[in-house]
Design brief:
Blueprint lengths: L1 H21 L1 E6 L2 E6 L6 E3 L12 H5 L4 E2 L9 E5 L5 E5 L2 E2 L21 E3 L4
Amino acid sequence: MKSITVGLAVLLLGTATSYAAEAWKEADVGGTKIYTDANGMTLYTYDKDEMGKSNCYDKCAANWPPLKAEADAKPEGEWTIVDRTDGTKMWAYEGKPLYTFIKDKKAGDVTGDGVGGVWHIAKAD
């Protein structure tokens, strides 16, 4: 029975880790390493957010959809989970909540960079 329990624990741990890793990935755009969502869409940070707190809701979130995290997602290294006031969760990198941009139409688009002087590509260090 003990080996079944250990095996199940390893399986569950592997599943949680692999899920988190599938929420984002690195890409190279114009010689710059950036983070994207699982579909290759560029991720952005918002200057009006606070560390570990999103300030993008309503119309803002309609234009800048948060990088959603599943309810059971677990932080992984520099990647953390932010609880939103609407009850959902989203991913953050180094404490900065991450978003996609509705005007980016295909993987590799970076049309949101610099919008309003407050939106920036999430660069991979």
